[in-house]
Amino acid sequence: MGKRYADVIVDISHEQVDRPFQYEIPERMRDTLDYGMCVEIPFGNGNRLIKGYVVGLSDKCNWDPAKMKVIHRIVVDSTAIQDRQIQLAAWIKKNYGATMIQAIKTVIPARKSVKKIEHRKLILRAGREETLDALGQAERKHQVAKARLLRELLSEGEIPYEWVTGKLMVSAATVSSLEKAGILRKEVITSYRNPVKRMDSQETNKRLSQEQSEIVQEVIKDYDTGNRGTYLVHGITGSGKTEVYIRLIEKIVARGKQAIVLIPEIALTYQTLLRFYRHFGDRVSVLNSSLSPGEKYDQCERAKHGEIDVIIGPRSALFTPFPNLGLIVIDEEHESSYKSESAPKYHARETAIYLASLYGASVVLGSATPSLEAFYKAQKGEYKLFSMTRRLTGGALPQIYTVDLREELKRGNRTIFSWKLQELLADRLSKGQQSMLFINRRGLAGFVSCRSCGYVAKCPHCDVSLSEHRGGRLVCHYCGYEMPSMKSCPECGSKYISGFRAGTQQIEDKLKELYPQMRVLRMDADTTKTKDSYEEILTAFRNGEADVLVGTQMIVKGHDFPNVTLVGVLAADLSLSVGDYRAGERTFQLITQAAGRAGRGTLPGEVVVQTYQPEHYAIIHAGQQDYLSFYEEEILYRKMMQYPPSAHMLAVQMFGRNEAEALQVGKRLAELVKGMNPAQESIRNQLQVIGPSPAGIGKIEDIYRFVFYVKHKDYSRLVQVKDVLEEKIHESNVSRVSVQFDFDPMNGL
Ligand code: ADP
Ligand code: ZN
Ligand code: ZN
User: Fold this and answer.
1) How many domains are contained in the chain?
2) In the beta sheet, which residues pair with residue 328?
3) Is the minimum distance from the CB of 237 to ligand 1 under 6 angstroms?
4) How do residues 172-229 score in pLDDT, each as one tens digit?
């Protein structure tokens, strides 16, 4: 047998981790050495022994064989944080497909010089009496934002400026007017630190409900007896899940350990963060997309050096390098944003469970609508299941009406609002209560078509339909291509060419037509282009500056508006027609989430679900808010069709500028997979190959996209398939076609 070589990197936190050195693998290590392992190697002129990590393995020598050095030894059982990070990267590489370098870059943030950060804060200057006076005045004048700021200052004394503009939603003008009046002053502090000081916590004294304390006790009992498991908390919105997470974290921190809390970015709301700050003060830190790479790096350093106990953030917060991780919480565990969309396409849930096993930590998953994956594992006993069935704030679950849009049309209603919805909208308007109207963005781009011949205007580069925007332009949402609107059809010359009018813009226009006095706010990709516009719209709505908020799915997640008593889901089945196996699940989740927005305060809520398929089981069970019945029907379908979670699926994607070439590569690889089936394998154990065919969107920015799917009941078998394909791709050197893997795809391809 020829010699084997390993690529070793020696400084992984270097900005560019892609400078490996090649070493010879001695005979005795042949069978054991693997990706990610820590090795000792002779380095530099003096051949000083240093530590490095294996990122590549091959038979080819890329270096003068006479000068090739040999790996000295494998370093075993190291528990340095960095070693565990590399181990995690190696696991991600193996299970999701990517190069080791890509995986390392995912897990370890690049070292960036950290500039000192200036933090501004507001400090209460006036006395209590004077402030209360000002508060009373603001309340009488209905200056909601000002009143909120004053109340916060009264209870906290000082607050970071970021909260004021970012999360408390108070304008700069309001702040200066209070500054001029001598109520508050600004102060600038320069530090690397979180500017939040530990706050008085009134929340710690909350008595846990029976359901809550059972969960906390059981998880902690397990933890203390050395049993580290994965727990799924299935609890309706408002049932007190967040409170459970906080209690658990307190207990874990008291045991000298640290905790990671994953929350979808969109649900990182001011209220949620405030609760964590109240409990953990400057021992908690937040990672979100508005931090610069330098600031993110800084948060990691603080974690490494034991300056914080808790980190909250989206998917990537999972890679915070704590020395003694004890608990990982994943809230809204079903969210598709937990799956990475670029290679390596890892899922945060599975990755968290592996990470926890490296540290001996526990994992708590929570959701009102658990993913089929998580609930399936809970049913099989792999996860421990807890249910929370009551809203703690007393509010009853909303009444849901399902409306058949076909019937509406028969009865002569040609608008996009059913009679029921119109009636309830008018009712709310007259009572001064708020409503939310929600439209599913998927598959609904406001496309332009010809009513005479069916022509659809498409982007010449991306194979998706163009969307009509106000101001008479047609725009591609993938690449930004623009052209003027058409007066007549380029195919048949007909004048009846127009947009499919059901985007958020059209809903807003129609509402104003029907209810001229109605104040409408709109939230979609167009109105949230700038960084703060998202918060600004939510603030304005919360402050009562509009009667109705119209939006895409952005508006249904996690927000708590006490004055909203009506939610309309305008076309519930649009997500059913997307045509991938998760469509039913997504629809159920969407309706449930939308319903969760109604009646959060003391007033009862109502929900109108408009649909063309009222008989679909996802719609029926969502209408009854019956997760278990939905799960049972959905899992039967998944089992019958061998879709995840009952089996697994690997999507192999080919990208290339040359259409024929990309397809050719796809066909060759698909054949290769079919050839991996042993001759007399039973059908049940065979790899099933579907495709290749053009991806859902066949072309983006002139790059053609093909995909084929491989199904098998065992995940590990699909990992083998990926390994074989990776090797093949490596050998054949077709650099003009790139190939990516996506295990159990979630986001549509
Ligand atoms: P979830 O995360 O499931 O939506 P939360 O933890 O946010 O639920 O709780 C919903 C509401 O109930 C919050 O306003 C919270 O302050 C309150 N709450 C939670 N637990 C308790 C408790 N044990 N006693 C009283 N109120 C509680
Ligand atoms: Zn036409
Ligand atoms: Zn385009």
Assistant:
1) 5
2) 260, 363
3) yes
4) 788 888 888 888 888 776 544 443 444 554 555 578 999 999 999 999 999 999 999 9
The confidence score (pLDDT) of residue 190 equals 52
- Whole-number CA gyration radius for the chain: 28
Query: Which one of the ligands is nearest to 456 CA?
Result: 2
Give the model's pLDDT for residue 45: 81
Which ligand 1 atom is the nearest neighbour of the CA of 392? 12
- Tell me the residue range of the domain where 81 lies: 4-107
Give the DSSP per-residue string, 151-167. HHHHHHSEEEHHIIIII
Q: Look at residue 444 and tell me whether its pLDDT is greater than 60.
A: no
User: Are residues 555 and 683 both part of a single domain?
Assistant: no
Out of 88, 107, 126, a domain closes at 107
* 431 occurs within a structural domain: yes
| Residue 200 domain flag | no
d(C-alpha 374, C-alpha 41), whole Å = 43
Could you give the CA distance from residue 708 to residue 558 in angstroms, rounded to a whole number?
36
Residue 432's pLDDT is 92
Mutate to test the pocket of ligand 1, among 216, 392, 397 (most ligand atoms within 8 A of CB): 392
HSE-CB of 453 using CA atoms within 13 angstroms: 11
**CATH number, residue 681:** 3.30.70.600
Nearest CA to ligand 1 atom 14: 393
Is residue 267 within 6 Å of ligand 1 at its C-beta? no
Residue 482 in domain: no
CA 460–ligand 3 middle distance (angstroms): 7
Residue nearest to ligand 1 atom 10, measured at CA: 238
For residue range 122-165, list pLDDT tens digits in order: 888 888 888 889 899 988 888 888 888 888 888 777 887 767 76
Q: Order across the sheet with 21-24: list the strands.
A: 21-24, 5-9, 48-58, 38-43, 73-74
Q: Is residue 519 lining ligand 1, measured as CB closer than 6 Å?
A: no
Regarding pTM above 0.90, the answer is no
Same structural domain for residues 255 and 355? Answer: yes
Task: Specify the higher pLDDT residue, 438 or 414.
Answer: 438
Distance of alpha carbon 30 from alpha carbon 524, whole angstroms = 56
Ligand 1: does its nearest atom lie under 6 Å from the Cβ of 677? no
Burial class of residue 472 (count of CB atoms within 10 Å of its CB; 0-12, 13-18, 19+): exposed
Same domain, 418 and 558: yes
pLDDT tens per residue, range 725-734 = 988 887 776 6
In a 13 Å sphere around the CA of 32, the CA atoms on its Cβ side amount to 12
Protein residues within 5 Å, CB atom, of ion ligand 3 = 459, 461-462, 476, 478-479, 481
| Band (499; pLDDT cuts 50, 70, 90) | low
State whether 378 and 414 are in the same domain.
no
Q: What is the CATH number of the domain that holds 631?
A: 3.40.50.300
Residue 627 and residue 512 share a domain: yes
| Joined tokens for residue 185 | 């002053």
Pair (145, 277) in one structural domain: no
Asked if residue 565 belongs to a domain, the reply is: yes
Q: Is the CB of 387 under 6 A from ligand 1?
A: no
Hey, what are 679's tokens?
Answer: 């001759």
